[in-house]
Amino acid sequence: MIRTPVLVGLGAMVPPRVVDNEELSQRLDTDDHWIRTRTGITRRHWAGPGTATGDLAVTAAQRALRSAGGGPVDMLILATSTPDHPMPATAPGVAARLGLGPIAAFDISVACAGFVYALATAAGAIAAGIAERVVVVGADIWSTRLDPQDRTTAVIFGDGAGAVVLRAGEPDEPGALAGFDLGGDGTFKDLALVPGGGSRGRSEPDGAGEADDYVTMHGKEIFTHAVHRMAESSAQLLKKIGWSASDIDWVAAHQANVRILHTVAGLLKVDRARVLVHLDRVGNTSAASIPLALTDAAAGGRLAPGQRVLMTAFGGGLSWGSAAMTWPPIQVSDVVS
Ligand code: ACO
Questions:
Q1: Atom 36, ligand 1: which residue's CA is nearest?
Q2: What pLDDT sits at residue 206?
Q3: 3.40.50.2300, 3.30.70.360, 3.20.20.140, 3.40.47.10: which CATH number matches 177-326?
Q4: Is 257 one of the annotated active-site residues of the chain?
Q5: Taken in order 285, 300, 12, 253, is the CA torsion positive or negative?
Q6: Is the peptide bond before 318 cis (omega within 30 degrees of 0)?
Q7: Where in the cell is it found (predicted)?
Q8: Count H helices, E strands: the chain?
Q9: H helix intervals, the chain
Q10: With a cut of 70, which residues of the chain have pLDDT below it?
Q11: Measured by CB atoms within 10 angstroms of the end CB, which terminus of the chain is less buried, N or C?
């Protein structure tokens, strides 16, 4: 019999410092009206000096474990593209600080699609009998990779972390993950890129400069790919698991731009009111965005046990993925912003 991954815990956090549109308008050629109407974002949280991705991941995971009622864990997967160091991975240090013992812990780097990929990897490990109980964290601090002069990226990204706990269970339990669809297309790898910090920088004749540590993004092209890939991936997953659009109670899509969310809803023929929106308060938190949006909705009492939730994400790579589940009877009390 195939063991089914079941979600039993959820938690999230954002760093305390709020950066609103007004603050960005004071130092960049932008304004609150443009940012709100073109992205839906009103504010975001940025980590201060001394705070790293692993710090946010620890707090989010602690909250998810508390929501799950504690218990042993035998694997931790951290989705991040802004790790504490190039080496080692950030996950083992997070697991150590959580006191989880000598468990398997590793990072997955799939930009904004990272949480869905990590969830699928955890689900596979549980189904294969490699793990019984897995913590999956999505955490990113993109504020350290923003070019202070680039208004196109500075207004979008926020920092944060979200985590879930999965355990082995039965397919008909509320909280059961019903299926996944994953995809990618590396021919468009340059559309969202941090040029420096990797072996490619050294192999090129001019070497990497300081600016190569900043993220560059072709927003318009990413937008077009994002809406089509998230809609297609969602549709393929629904077909695979035998759900129709009318079965979906909530869509938890990667929070990059409210216009992307509305376009995906239209393509899927799902009412916009069924799409969770959290980016207005936190911006694009990359690998953290789906568990943050779920935490926000669960803490606000919008997610009820047994409801059907579709998650879909898209990011640099290009990479995309979708996951489907029924909502579990869990307690989530963290108000994240
Ligand atoms: N303030 C004011 N004007 C701006 C700003 C700004 N912050 N940013 C761009 N503009 C200007 C442009 O210069 C352009 O001016 P022009 O017409 O005079 O040339 C105009 O606004 C329109 O620019 P567009 O790039 O066409 O703006 P668009 O409506 O596409 O919005 C945005 C840009 C918000 C970036 C949008 O394209 C988007 O959200 N893209 C998706 C981003 C995304 O999903 N990223 C996640 C992947 S990254 C990762 O995985 C880590």
A1: 219
A2: 61
A3: 3.40.47.10
A4: no
A5: negative
A6: yes
A7: Cytoplasm
A8: 11, 13
A9: 21-27, 32-39, 53-67, 91-97, 114-127, 151-154, 199-203, 219-241, 258-268, 279-282, 289-299
A10: 1, 202-211
A11: N
Q: Which amino acid is at 140?
A: D
What are the domain boundaries of the chain? 4-169, 177-326
What single-letter amino acid sits at 271? Answer: D
Which class does domain 4-169 fall in? Answer: alpha beta
Q: Which residue has the tokens 């376009």?
A: 263
Q: Which two tokens stand for residue 295?
A: 């935490």
How many Cβ atoms sit within 10 Å of the Cβ of residue 300? 12
Instruction: Tell me if the bond preceding 291 is cis, omega within 30° of 0.
Output: no
Q: What is the pLDDT of residue 6?
A: 98
284 annotated active-site? yes
- Report residue 297 as tokens: 């909705």
Distance CA 165, CA 64 (A): 6
Which one-letter DSSP state was computed for residue 176? B
Model pLDDT for residues 38-73, shown as the tens digit of each residue: 999 999 999 999 999 999 999 999 999 999 998 999
Identity of the amino acid at 4: T
Predicted confidence at residue 202, as pLDDT, reads: 62
**Active-site entry in 21, 45, 112, 278:** 112
pLDDT score at 197: 84
Helix (H, G, I), strand (E, B) or coil at 104: strand
The answer, yes or no, to whether any atom of ligand 1 lies below 6 A from the CB of 225, is no
Sign of the CA dihedral with 125 first, then 225, 112, and 199 last: positive
**d(CA 259, ligand 1 centre) in Å:** 12
Among 115, 130, 228, smallest CA distance to 180 is for: 115
Res 24: pLDDT:
96
Can 112 be counted among the known catalytic residues? Answer: yes
